Give the backbone structure.
Amino acid sequence: QEKPLVILPNLTSCHESMGRSDLPVYCCPPMNQSNVAFIDFQFPDPSLPLRVRRPTHLLDDDYISKYKKALTIMKSLPDTDPRSYTRQANLHCLYCTGAYNQQGSNAPLNIHRSWLFFPWHRMLVYFHERILGSLIGDDTFALPFWPWDIPEGMVIPEMYMKAPFFHEARDFSHFPPSVVDLDYSCTTPSSEDYRCFESGLGPGDQVHTNLAMMYNQMVAGAKKMELFMGCPYKAGEGGSCDGPGTIELAPHNTVHKWVGSNLNPGSREDMGVFYSAARDPIFYPHHANIDRLWEVWRTLHGNKVITDPGWLDSSFFFYDEKLQLNRIKIRDVLSITKLQYAYEKVDFTWLHNRP
Ligand code: C2O
């Protein structure tokens, strides 16, 4: 009987990769035995408290000071510690620039622009959150989400404008009270007349345009599984599937570019390009919102599920708060209830914004 082909990174294959077409980067963890010894992921004990992720505009000072403490500790850990902020950010670099080859073939592994996008980022954010909680001894700690899809969330959240959440490499012309442009785009970085397009809309019109776009990306343009999830990336294929789902393309990519710095034209580091995006603390509430929208999409479209065993059993590696390397399968992250977290409900005003 033939085993389904699953995606699995070959940890010992970690190598230099291209952060940009003109920039080689090396994001690999130090190589030793403890980097390849792993355990299989176990669901958290159901008696533990549920972690409730709240929207950035509704956080109270108590919560913000806890998160601040946790992030400050994380940023102070040395790079030899896989829980450190740098190592967490490098995970994104590793899996997003093809630094690992796949087991069983030598094809490079990339988790963007395909159906690996939602589950892989869910894992990254999940372990990041557990580590932050453990650094302050709080197993109820949950990351916030940045709800740029609703009017209350369409500016950079105030708390991300202050240390330790602030990040230098951002476009200062997009600081509050500038309203996010969910359709922000730039010409290809290599083009001669490289430029990004500012919508030029006033705040009210920008909010309205954003809501109409959300309706399209979540409802009208995302009725079929593949349109939302992205193309089926199969083991051994390398880069041959290149089809991001609606939300991955925008607002996911567009918000990355919109936040990233205009002083780095073309790539807009740090948020604007994969190898550096997770260095900006705003990456995490941005991805918590993407993760939440995956849940919302499922409820809007009759809970459609992917049943392909190649997808379900594809696995990735993440360190947990106990410094254990976990091998975790996509099928393990399909229920956020089993992962013991939830999203506070917010009104999706865009649902009523059919353009
Ligand atoms: Cu892996 Cu928001 O990109």
About this structure: The longest strand covers residues 315-319. The pocket of CU-O-CU linkage is lined by residues 92, 96, 112, 121, 252, 256, 274, 277, 287 (CB under 6 Å).
